[in-house]
Amino acid sequence: MSSFDRFRTPGGDLASFFRSIVTPGHRYSSSQGRGHASFDQADYEWEQLRANQAAAKHLDFFAHGLAGPRGTKVVLQALRASPGATSISLQSQNDLGDNGVRALLVGLKQLRARGVGASLQELNLSGNHLTDVSMHLIALHLLQPSPHPPTLTHLYLTANSFSLSSPELTEFLGAALSSPSSALRCLSLTNNMAIKSTGLLSLLQHLKLGPSTQLAQLHFSLCELTPNCAEPLARWLEDPDGGARLQVLCINGNSIGVAGLRRIARSVISGKASSLLHLESHANEPTEEQEEWKEVNEALEAEETEEDREGWKERLEVAKERNKVVLKETRLAALGLLAKGRVLFGGNPREPEVDAGAIRRGVEELDTRENPYAPKTLSSSLSSSAFPFLRLPIELQVHVLRCSLLLKPSQTAHLYQPISSTSSLLPPLSPSTLSSPLTEHQFLNLLAHCASSSTLGIEMRIAAAGGRVPSLKQSTGWRQDSWTEAGGGASGSASGSAWEDWVLRKTECDRFARG
Question: Exposed end of the chain (fewer CB within 10 Å): N or C?
Answer without folding.
Answer: N
